[in-house]
Amino acid sequence: MQETIIKIEGMSCGHCKAAVEKALKAVPGVETAVVNLEEKQAVVTGNATMHAMREAIEDAGYEVF
């Protein structure tokens, strides 16, 4: 299991945090997903591909950079 840090743009509130965490946790292979609004990032553990995680975040309305 690996840990991945993903920088995310467009999050501004608790709802945004919850939406991104929910989207990431729905990706096959994601074990945990914790979003930090101040850092504008998510820390994800598991074996999901970056492509799948990026797609889930973008489908939720946020931008990965």
From TrEMBL:
Residues 2-65 form the HMA domain. InterPro entries: Cu-bd (IPR000428), Heavy-metal-associated_CS (IPR017969), HMA_dom (IPR006121), HMA_dom_sf (IPR036163). SUPFAM superfamilies: HMA, heavy metal-associated domain. Gene3D superfamilies: 3.30.70.100. The keyword Metal-binding applies. GO terms for molecular function: copper ion binding. GO terms for biological process: copper ion transport. The keyword Metal-binding applies. Keywords: Metal-binding. This is Copper chaperone CopZ. It comes from bioreactor metagenome. The gene is copZ_14.
